Amino acid sequence: ESDTASEISFQFNKHKKTPSIGSHSSDMASVSSVSGSVLSVYSGDFGSVDAQGTVEFALDYDEKNREFQVHVSQCKDLAVVDEKKGRSDPYVKTYLLPDKARMGKRKTSVKKRTVNPIYNEVLRYKIEKMVLLIQKLNLSVWHNDPLGRNSFLGEIEVDLASWDWSNRKLNWYPLKPRSLSAVNGVDHRGVMNLSIKYVPPGSLGKMCPKNPPSGEVHIWVKDVKDLLQLRPSGVDSFVKCYVLPDTSKKSYQKTRVIKRDTNPVFNHTIVYDGFHTEDLKDACVELTVWDHEKLTNHFLGGIRLGLGTGLSYGISVDWMDSTQEEVAFWQEMMSAANEWIEGLLPLRSL
């Protein structure tokens, strides 16, 4: 079925016990820890502030240094976040979309107690012009909260393919409410073709030499179609896999890298054992696709297979957020023991 296969032991224990040899006992005390590899453009607390005001900036591309420059000048008439004190502590944040990972983020300093902040700062990206032209610039303004619950004040999105690069002057632009498509993650990132199977403990009969003493989840990553192309040479992609809540090295598996192909064929099977049938309600298989580079890997999209209840072993977790399609896929696997369930699922921004 596959040219490479990985097998990993995985045992969910709600009560700490001595793990058996060859299996990993998951510490439920850390059940709320999340695989923190992906950050949303809209991380933070939006609050109830309506977007208002304007931002002054200019865009330029330095051909000599191959550098994209965002000159953030100032903002005017921003919304007031703390009405009692009549203050906002604003800063500007930029992303190059569709790359929403940490590498794509830049931000200015925070200006305190003002709705008319002056920055005069340049946010820089080392990027090839051809790659830049297939991206969008998302520029947003935020109120900085000491406790980390930052409030969204407005944004503007620029399609860099249609930008007039002869225009290097500072211009004013109205700040808009956050875009519905970006909040809901409605952006096409490709489609993953895969099959999954659950083998309950002892279900293959005593005479079967491969009869597992504990339950197994088999994940067969076949291929991915229509990946985002972040550079002219194509995409060097691979797939990571975790079974949450465990984000340890024992849970982590990955495929080989397929080079220069937006439609990579992986044909890679991963087997996790140590499953009890009741664990399927609280576990979540996270598959993410990455573009491989020497210095850093860029997130392209992912899926989460689970029941999407928001809970894991009674604890609220934000990674139990499967879509209707992902939930239906997982439920079909749960109801059809020992059978391969095939699916074609859209990648999304986790």
Please, could you describe this protein's structure?
Mean pLDDT is 80; it is low at 1-7, 10-46 and 180-186. The protein has two domains: 37-172, C2 domain (Immunoglobulin-like), CATH 2.60.40; 188-345, Immunoglobulin-like, CATH 2.60.40. 6% of the residues lie in helices and 40% in strands. It is built from three helices and 21 strands. The protein is mainly β and 350 residues long. Pfam families: C2. One of its GO terms (cellular component) is exocytic vesicle.
Q: Any descriptors?
A:
globular, Immunoglobulin-like, 4-stranded antiparallel β-sheet, 350 residues, mainly beta, 5-stranded mixed β-sheet, 6% helix
Question: CATH homologous superfamily name of the largest domain?
Answer: C2 domain
Indicate the percent of residues in helices.
under 10%
Number of helices: 3
Structural shape: globular
CATH topology name of the largest domain: Immunoglobulin-like
Number of strands: 21
- Beta percentage is 35-45%
Number of domains: 2
CATH architecture of the largest domain: Sandwich
How would you sum up the major sheet? 5 strands, mixed
Structural class: mainly beta
Average pLDDT level: 80
Radius of gyration: 23 Å
Low-confidence stretches: 1-7, 10-46, 180-186
Determine the N-to-C terminus distance.
Answer: 29 Å
CATH class of the largest domain: Mainly Beta
Q: How would you spell out the order of helices and strands?
A: EEEEEEEEHEEEHEEEEEEEEEHE
Arrangement of strands in the largest sheet: 1-16-13-12-21
